[in-house]
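I have been asked to look over a protein record a colleague put together. Alongside the sequence sits a line of tokens, each denoting a local backbone shape. I have pasted the whole thing underneath without changing anything:
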Amino acid sequence: MAKKKRKRRTTPAGAAQNGSAPAPTPSATAAARREKKEAARLQRERAAKAQVRRGALRRGLIGGLVGLLVFFAISWFTNRAPAAKPYPRSAIDAGTAARCEDLQTPSANPERDHLASGEAHTYDQHPATSGAHDPSPLGDHGIYPAPVAETQAVHSLEHGSVIMYYRPSADPQGLSDTVVQALGPIATDSPATYLIPAPDLPDGTALAFTAWNKLVTCPAGIAADQATTIAQGFVDSFACTNNAPEGKNGDGC
């Protein structure tokens, strides 16, 4: 009996044998490669953009810090009080001729505490040139017609002010009206400078020049030209300077 002839099975092109997945076609492989390249390109672009953003942020932070430092440096130089000048020879000579006391620095370690508003305080020295003081300083500089609270005056001295105290001429030990009138323009024309009556100045003192922790006292016999020479030298040396802890804060500084 003749055997039947088996038909040969043919495997379609590209089909897998033995039940495995079909092999990718060249077009599929190329597409996969393109996708992979595109993904890599996008990743590189994202990384580059992120780097640019980080660089911009870093530059911004550095620029901001530099700008802040420049601002503080300019503010510091702008707001810094100039250095005090040496007390001039002309003022020293005028004080000697008028029998004034030499320039004093009364305290080795001046206090700066704030009192409660309106609180009274007794100073070891009068007129006081430093110490605890009222939270509020005096107002505008110039000529004052009446005595002031010494606690406020000391606060003004802390701000770089100069205060010229005088005993009124009605007192037998008082300063002559001629000298008072001669000192008036210095008080009004100079920054942070005051001319204030003080009937309770110590005996023998008719005129006192005060700055923060600086003092010159003079007797009633002082002449107008001597007083103005001392006053101008004192103001030039100490008003609105770093002689005071806050020497730039005085009125007109």
The longest strand covers residues 162-166.
